């Protein structure tokens, strides 16, 4: 979720920059900022995917213990919440 918010914020900043009018020094305006924002967003997604892959690789050799009691309690609550008896 944080990466989505960051991507949206970067897009908003890029839109704000590209809306600025061209100047004598920057004849194309700031349209290249959109390209740089997209490049940064893509690079960050690759970094995040690499981190997730690294963490998954580590868990193959050192699996964490599952809190089965808590998991079963939450699953039971979710199952009861979605039971067909509530539909009638």
UniProtKB/TrEMBL annotation:
<dbReference type="InterPro" id="IPR027469">
    <property type="entry name" value="Cation_efflux_TMD_sf"/>
</dbReference>
<feature type="transmembrane region" description="Helical">
    <location>
        <begin position="35"/>
        <end position="54"/>
    </location>
</feature>
<feature type="domain" description="Cation efflux protein transmembrane">
    <location>
        <begin position="1"/>
        <end position="79"/>
    </location>
</feature>
<dbReference type="InterPro" id="IPR058533">
    <property type="entry name" value="Cation_efflux_TM"/>
</dbReference>
<dbReference type="Pfam" id="PF01545">
    <property type="entry name" value="Cation_efflux"/>
</dbReference>
<protein>
    <submittedName>
        <fullName>Cation diffusion facilitator family transporter</fullName>
    </submittedName>
</protein>
<dbReference type="GO" id="GO:0005886">
    <property type="term" value="C:plasma membrane"/>
</dbReference>
<dbReference type="InterPro" id="IPR002524">
    <property type="entry name" value="Cation_efflux"/>
</dbReference>
<keyword id="KW-0812">Transmembrane</keyword>
<dbReference type="GO" id="GO:0005385">
    <property type="term" value="F:zinc ion transmembrane transporter activity"/>
</dbReference>
<keyword id="KW-0472">Membrane</keyword>
<keyword id="KW-1133">Transmembrane helix</keyword>
<dbReference type="InterPro" id="IPR050681">
    <property type="entry name" value="CDF/SLC30A"/>
</dbReference>
């Amino acid at each position: 979720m944080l990466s989505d918010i960051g991507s949206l914020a970067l897009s908003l900043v890029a839109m704000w920059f590209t809306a600025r009018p061209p100047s004598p020094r920057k004849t194309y305006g700031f349209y290249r900022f959109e390209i740089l924002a997209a490049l940064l967003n893509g690079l960050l997604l690759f970094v995040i995917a690499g981190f997730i892959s690294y963490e998954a690789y580590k868990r193959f050799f050192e699996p964490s213990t599952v809190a089965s009691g808590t998991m079963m309690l939450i699953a039971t609550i979710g199952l009861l919440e979605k039971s067909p008896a509530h539909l009638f």
